[in-house]
Write a structure and sequence with these properties.
The complex is a heterodimer of chains A (about 350) and B (about 475).
Chain A (H helix, E strand, L loop, with lengths): L7 H51 L16 H14 L3 H13 L1 H9 L4 H14 L5 H7 L5 H29 L5 H11 L1 H14 L3 H10 L5 H14 L3 H8 L8 H7 L5 H14 L5 H7 L5 H13 L5 H10 L3 H16 L1
Helix pairs in contact in A: 1-2, 2-3, 2-5, 4-5, 5-7, 6-7, 7-8, 7-9, 7-10, 9-10, 9-11, 10-12, 11-12, 12-14, 13-14, 14-16, 15-16, 16-18, 17-18
Chain B lengths: L1 H42 L16 E7 L6 H8 L7 E8 L5 H9 L1 E3 L13 E7 L5 E6 L4 H11 L4 E5 L4 E2 L3 H11 L3 E10 L4 E3 L2 E4 L2 E2 L2 H16 L17 E5 H6 L10 H15 L5 E12 L5 H20 L11 H16 L1 H17 L5 H28 L7 H13 L4 H17 L22 E2 L1
Parallel strand pairs in B: 1-2, 1-6, 2-5, 8-13
Antiparallel strand pairs in B: 3-4, 4-5, 6-12, 7-13, 8-12, 9-10, 11-14
């Protein structure tokens, strides 16, 4: 072609440049088309939501008698709307929402979506099956708990808890302890939803069978949503037997029985500052007036956090007024200890 | 004569291949971003369901360094106190402001002196006083001698109580759930040590009570051009590196870090103007050298909005400062480059940054100058000259359009089709002068860095027109 550079290499680069510009124009067109599609989709979704919101809200009282059909391409949008209502409402309203869902065939729809490769559809399907309490999908959901995707597996675990927490928890807590890719904050939230009656026994059993310090720490953190009595007893056992500072510190957080006071006093002089911090906090919860001396010694600790929690513990210890502490502060020779106690007293006054 | 022709032809091909190379590199990043952005959106598709926040997220210390921010500080802090997050504290560090920043804080938040046992873990200028708000218990103010942004951040870290800290620019406008978004990577993977999100341009948007009320486009053409630039920088400039664990920049406007890791690394360096990037590159280097598993993550959600310069002078100052910051960050951590344990950060991201971002302006400006001069002097054929221009502009265009395409496929922040049309126009326009001007400013920054002249924080002048709520732009 005559308009191409004569140098073959230059001609190649020139053609590449033209190709790139053609690509840009195609992408420009794609941006326009995507925006057009978005505008049309949002318009449909708005109309769909306007139709369904009043019907879903009616479920607070009863299931509406006549229900419109959910178009195939709006099933994701509808499921999200339905789940939003399900998670916002409680009691009888939820039952009505589930009846409405079954009348619409939402369970069948969700089962179909579970088989797709689209992660978005699979996630919403799993959540929906959980909310519907669909026991027939138990084997599939249980298999999904082992999936390598943390999002998918965690959603499946949550769905199983929604379907039957009592049957799920005994084995699920072991998985929760072992799967480090499951965020602890999410697990604790899930266990809290299940309630202390359901989670306490399986967690205590799992703690006894925990294989590594990391698993033990995770289980101890989860036990924070369990009944304090059994959780504290199990944690005290772990604290006595373990030598791992992280485990001991996590265990001390769960203690609250005055019988654990001796354990707190022993841990207050532990070599690890993490343990000393946890012991100071525990002394603040269950300490006696006699522990004032120990805590005052801890004010001179080399670590800032130990000094801070010892000072805070002193301000919450029974039978000790802030005025008395102020007098104690004036007798302290250690400037760091004195400054820290001044801060804790100011914080206590601000509370 | 033939010797000089070979020399000219060699240079011509060098510059041509350089432009092809840099842009192909960005296109590869674009492809990487496309995949990870899609996966991210799918994985977080249910985040807006009511069960989203668990209440067990780790507490965060939000650190706000402030220097001469009298006009905007109260509004900014008020918005930061209303974030949608279960447990956090706000620490404002008044870095020896010469205006009424401290007085404004005292007046607006009823501050009282607080006898805090300040823990000097990181080097920072002396603290003049620590104050606590009587109306907002989670707010504390550190009043200290001037020492620069890095120094103020270090002082904030020293005073912080929580295991994660988030450095936020005092003039940033945040999304209500911005903290929740950047904390996600820390929840998902305990190896995460830092995360940052997308920063967008606030000019033209309207802000109500410290939060973004509606998204608009500015009337100022410079600000409009920067919108396209930010899209390119964040959506694939950073998103592309994230799956490789090679993100080298987390914007100082909003970045979340694990405190113990930053303290162990020595905190922010006070002898650089690019303290945000330097810290991230240093964290990569230290973790790689010590073989400590870690992750530095980029979250694509738009979480923070910032005011872009609307005058050439201020924009030039900003770009010069950024280039100096980049130069300092890379040279202070040269040990990461091609280190056997450097991983993707040392073997891909660092060399990429060094060749295309750090030395890029030098080669780009030299390339343009050489081709123009050689063409005028008849040393390069018209065919070669126009091919060079075609490649330079063509690649520039494809990169900008692709960033807009990514935006359209993901967040579509700009709601009106007219706004998208304006941005598409900017995508074309920026290739005719704006990009070349930027290269010149960056070259100037590079030369200033080489001359080791001093730079200071706080040179940015802001109009904050969006803070009035009017937006001052097209909607």
């Amino acid at each position: 072609m005559s308009w191409l550079p004569h140098d073959p290499l230059l001609a190649l680069v020139f053609q590449a440049g033209l190709g790139i510009i053609a690509c840009s124009l195609l992408m420009l067109a794609a941006v326009f088309l995507l925006r057009l599609r978005l505008v049309l989709r949002l318009r449909r979704e708005r109309r769909h939501a306007a139709l369904w919101r009043p019907l879903l809200a009616e479920c607070v009282y009863a299931v509406p008698e006549t229900l419109p059909k959910v178009p195939h391409d709006l099933r994701y949008h509808f499921m999200k709307l339905w789940n939003h209502h399900h998670e916002s409402l409680e009691g009888g309203a939820r039952d009505n929402l589930e009846k409405l869902a079954r009348a619409l065939g939402l369970d069948v729809m969700a089962r179909g979506m579970l088989q797709t490769s689209d992660l978005r559809l699979r996630l919403i399907a799993i959540i929906t099956l959980g909310h519907l309490g669909d026991r027939q999908r138990w084997p599939e959901l249980r298999a999904l708990v082992s999936d390598s995707s943390p999002m998918l597996s965690l959603a499946a675990a949550r769905a199983l808890l929604d379907i039957d927490a009592r049957a799920t928890l005994p084995w699920l807590v072991m998985v929760m302890a072992a799967r480090e890719d499951w965020p602890l904050a999410r697990l604790v939230a899930m266990l809290k939803e299940a309630g202390p009656d359901q989670v306490t026994a399986p967690l205590v059993a799992a703690l006894q069978a925990a294989g590594s310090p990391a698993q033990t720490v995770r289980l101890l953190r989860m036990l924070e949503v369990a009944h304090s009595g059994p959780a504290g007893a199990a944690a005290a056992r772990v604290v006595r037997e373990s030598e791992d500072p992280e485990v001991i510190a996590a265990g001390l957080r769960l203690l609250g029985d005055p019988r654990d006071l001796e354990l707190a006093r022993v841990c207050a002089v532990h070599a690890s500052w993490v343990v000393r911090v946890a012991a100071a906090r525990l002394l603040g919860r269950i300490g006696e007036p006699g522990d004032r001396r120990l805590l005052a010694c801890m004010l001179g600790d080399a670590h800032w956090w130990v000094r801070y929690h010892a000072a805070r513990a002193l301000t919450v210890l029974p039978f000790t007024s802030l005025e008395e502490l102020e007098k104690v502060r004036l007798t302290l020779n250690d400037r760091f200890a004195s400054d820290m106690l001044a801060q804790a007293i100011a914080e206590a006054r601000a509370r | 004569m033939s010797g000089s022709i070979d020399w000219v032809a060699g240079l011509q091909w060098f510059f041509m291949l350089y432009f092809i190379g840099i842009n192909s590199g960005y296109l590869m990043l674009n492809l990487l971003s496309l995949g990870s952005l899609r996966r991210y959106i799918e994985e977080h598709s249910l985040d807006d369901l009511p069960r989203g926040i668990s209440g067990f997220e780790p507490p965060v210390s939000v650190i706000v360094p402030a220097y001469n921010e009298e006009a905007t500080i109260a509004g900014s802090v008020r918005s930061m106190l209303q974030l949608n997050y279960p447990d956090y504290e706000v620490i404002v560090v008044n870095d020896g402001s010469k205006d009424g920043t401290m007085a404004a804080l005292r007046r607006e938040f009823s501050l009282l002196p607080f006898p805090e046992a300040y823990w000097q873990r990181l080097p920072a200028q002396p603290v003049r006083g620590i104050y606590r708000s009587t109306t907002h218990p989670s707010l504390r103010v550190i009043d200290k001698e001037n020492g620069g942004k890095a120094d103020a951040l270090n002082a904030g870290i020293n005073a912080s109580r929580y295991p994660l800290f988030c450095g936020v620019d005092a003039d940033s406008v945040l999304e209500r759930d911005s903290l929740k978004r950047v904390v996600e990577p820390f929840l998902e993977d305990p190896r995460t040590i830092a995360s940052g999100g997308t920063v967008r341009i606030a000019n033209g948007c309207s802000v109500d009570n410290g939060f973004l009320a509606s998204v608009g486009l500015p009337r100022n053409p410079l600000a409009l051009l920067q919108i396209v630039e930010y899209l390119r920088a964040f959506l694939f400039g950073r998103m592309g590196w994230s799956p490789l664990n090679a993100v080298l920049i987390i914007s100082g406007a909003f970045g979340l870090f694990r405190k113990d890791v930053v303290v162990a690394a020595g905190g922010y360096r006070r002898d650089t103007v690019g303290e945000d990037m330097e810290l991230v590159v240093r964290l990569h280097r230290l973790h790689r050298m010590k073989r400590i598993p870690y992750r530095i993550v980029f979250v694509p959600d738009p979480i923070c909005w910032t005011e872009a310069p609307e005058s050439l002078r201020v924009l030039k100052n900003q770009r010069v400062r950024w280039q100096r910051g980049l130069s300092e960050s890379l040279t202070m951590n040269l040990g990461l480059l091609f280190h056997p344990r450097g991983g993707a950060a040392g073997w891909l991201a660092f060399p990429f940054m060094a060749i295309f971002e750090w030395l890029g302006p030098l080669i780009e400006v030299a390339g343009y100058l050489f081709m123009i001069c050689a063409f005028v002097l008849g040393m390069v054929s018209g065919e070669a000259f126009f091919t060079f221009l075609l490649v330079a502009f063509g690649f520039g265009l494809v990169l900008s359009v692709s960033s807009l395409l990514l935006e359209e496929m993901s967040f579509h922040i700009y709601p009106k089709p007219g706004q998208v049309a304006v941005l598409l126009l900017m995508v074309v326009v920026e290739n005719f002068g704006y990009r070349q001007l930027n290269s010149l400013w960056r070259l100037w920054g590079l030369l200033l860095w080489m001359a080791r002249s001093k730079a200071r924080w706080g040179e940015m002048t802001r109009s904050a027109s969006w803070q009035t709520g009017g937006g001052g732009g097209t909607k």
